[in-house]
Specification:
6 helices, mainly alpha, elongated
Length: about 210
């Protein structure tokens, strides 16, 4: 009996170590991608790139919080997941403001720099999602982190499509359209994360 308990304790610690290692890697990737996307958004004049950059910033913050509570209680993890949902909503608000500004100041983004940044962003997002995939059905902490990574892949594909649309049509509206679609994805994802966090908080208090 004692050996079984000891073995389980070792397995839990090993799992937590793997979780911390993966979260540290995806945190670094998202921080670097955020800096690249914001610079590319400024250089190319793209709303969808800025939305992706803000999403990467929010993800970097949420991965840092996930890393901090790997060994915390279920209630603490649920509270962090609640904050993650609010961060996703904040990213949606940033996208909304950027879309409104671009509509008031229309311009055609530079699709070459936009496309290159979109490709780099998508590659980084796919890497993060693959790293987090083994933990997608785990506790609310890692499950919400995987939710963020999956959103990032959707966002990466959408931004790449926006760059292609701008390049083919020589117009700014594909960029604004994709940014609006990403806004809806963020809001839907925030709803799922907030609902899961609420259920986790309720379960841990009963």
């Amino acid at each position: 009996m004692g050996e079984a308990c000891c073995g389980r304790h070792v397995d839990v610690r090993a799992l937590q170590a793997r979780q911390r290692r993966v979260l540290s890697i995806v945190l670094g990737i998202n921080a670097a991608t955020f800096a690249m996307m914001v610079w590319a958004s400024w250089y190319s004049g793209s709303s969808s790139l800025l939305s992706g950059g803000l999403d990467n910033l929010g993800d970097a913050a949420t991965y840092a919080m996930s890393l901090a509570v790997v060994r915390a209680s279920a209630f603490a993890k649920a509270r962090v997941a609640l904050f993650k949902g609010l961060m996703i909503l904040a990213a949606a608000g940033g996208v909304l403001v950027q879309i409104a500004w671009r509509l008031a100041h229309p311009a055609v983004p530079l699709f070459e720099s936009m496309g290159l940044a979109a490709l780099l962003n998508l590659g980084a997002n796919i890497t993060c999602m693959r790293l987090l995939m083994p933990f997608r059905a785990g506790d609310v902490n890692l499950a919400s982190a995987w939710e963020c990574a999956r959103n990032d892949v959707i966002e990466g594909c959408a931004v790449l499509a926006a760059a292609a649309g701008v390049g083919v049509l020589h117009a700014g509206w594909p960029d604004w359209l994709i940014a609006g679609a990403l806004l809806m994805v963020f809001v839907r994802s925030a709803g799922r994360v907030l609902a899961a966090a609420w259920r986790g908080m309720q379960a841990s208090t009963t």
